[in-house]
Amino acid sequence: MEGLIQNMVSALSGIPAELVIFIISLCPILELRGGLIAASLLGVDMWRAIPICIIGNILPIPFILLFIETIFEKLKNTRFVKMINKLEEKAEKGAQKIMKHKNFGLFLFVGIPLPGTGAWTGSLVAALFHFKLKDACLSILGGLILATAIMSFISYGIPYLVSMLAG
């Protein structure tokens, strides 16, 4: 993931660091996790980076929750059918972990920053498995807050502690 983040930071060089981390936070796979890592690499203050990354990560979520099923149905009749099938398979895998505990499962799925988890996949699962919109939004937002705390410590706290111990 760090290589991908480095590549995005390099590709977006020349634009303000805050815009770079916002764009990275919008992207599936990277999301808030990637945005906070990029922010620390770019020297953006943690308290400035956090709201930018949260907004960037949460912005696509309502569109996924409300429109993804319609979009998928339309794309299944195009050359993108294989891609849609893969995304649905990914949602199915995520759903097995989430459905056992429903809303709390969705919260943890979004909140614990592991590969293949996050707000994008969590939203996809919530939409395809017909979570109530309010429940999905609250679980995803809560998960983003948990992911923010974990990733802030990883991106800012650990490097700070290492520098304190080394210095």
Describe the structure.
The chain has 167 residues and is mostly helical. It folds into two domains: 2-58, no CATH class; 61-146, no CATH class. The chain contains nine helices and no strands. Helix 1 (2-11) packs across helix 3. The longest helix has 34 residues, at 133-166. The radius of gyration is 17 Å and the shape is globular. The model has no long low-confidence stretch (mean pLDDT 91).
By DSSP, the count of extended strands is: 0
Any idea what the radius of gyration is? 17 Å
Distance between the termini: 28 Å
* Helix segment tally: 9
Number of domains: 2
Query: What percent of the residues sit in helical stretches (DSSP H or I)?
Result: over 70%
* Arithmetic mean of pLDDT: 91
Strand content: under 5%
Question: How would you describe this structure in keywords?
Answer:
single chain; mainly alpha
Topology:
Blueprint: H1 2-11, H2 17-26, H3 31-42, H4 46-58, H5 61-75, H6 81-99, H7 102-111, H8 119-128, H9 133-166
Helix pairs in contact: 1-3, 2-3, 2-4, 3-4, 3-9, 4-9, 5-8, 6-7, 6-8, 7-8, 7-9, 8-9
Q: In short, what is this structure?
A:
With 167 residues, this protein is mainly α. The protein is built from nine helices and no strands. Helix 2 (17-26) packs antiparallel against helix 3 (31-42), helix 5 crosses helix 8 (119-128) and helix 7 (102-111) packs antiparallel against helix 8 (119-128).
